[in-house]
Amino acid sequence: MKGTTHAGVARTTTLWIATGAVTCGLLLAAGQGAAAQPPDGRRAPAPPCTNTRLLADSAQQIRGSQVRITLVNEGPQACSLKGFPAVALAGQGSPDRNKPLNVVPQGQARPVELQAGGRAWTLLTFTPVLGEAEGYCASGAEPTVAPSIVLGVGGGGLQVAPDDGGQFALCGTTVRATAFRAAGS
Fold this sequence. Notes:
Layout: H1 6-36, E1 54-63, E2 66-73, E3 79-81, E4 86-90, E5 98-100, E6 102-106, E7 112-114, E8 119-126, E9 144-146, E10 148-153, E11 156-160, E12 168-170, E13 174-178, E14 181-182
Parallel strand pairs: 6-13
Antiparallel strand pairs: 1-2, 2-8, 3-7, 4-5, 4-10, 8-13, 8-14, 9-12, 10-11
């Protein structure tokens, strides 16, 4: 290195080290940001809701054979629901002792993100029991009556009773269920 002084080499080396440190820092920062966000700039979806962080706070009768079940995220962070619930008839005891119903999905399932304290709902429609107190089924089958249902969601079951203190009454073993929807939609 003819004509280069010791100070010049030190400055060049220092410049290369500083440039390398800045470049590495930028690459590391970009890598961390890339891991936290999908490439299109949206934030990563919330993890799926589990039944341990959800509360089924009501089974509100809408019309004679329709019931709206509202779920609340009681967890500390956002979670997401997608799809349709499983539904079973149950007594007053354990949710594990139930009679599963065949669920006919209604509508298209889309992810519903629930912030902490957020609400979502599904609408269940049973084949109605006809007549008054000693009702009957149009098919000729005996009506089924149960004091509660178990909503299968998030890997477990949430047991709910009608909010009016009555019982669930239906004909057959089938229920129609809408996909989960955000409250207010």
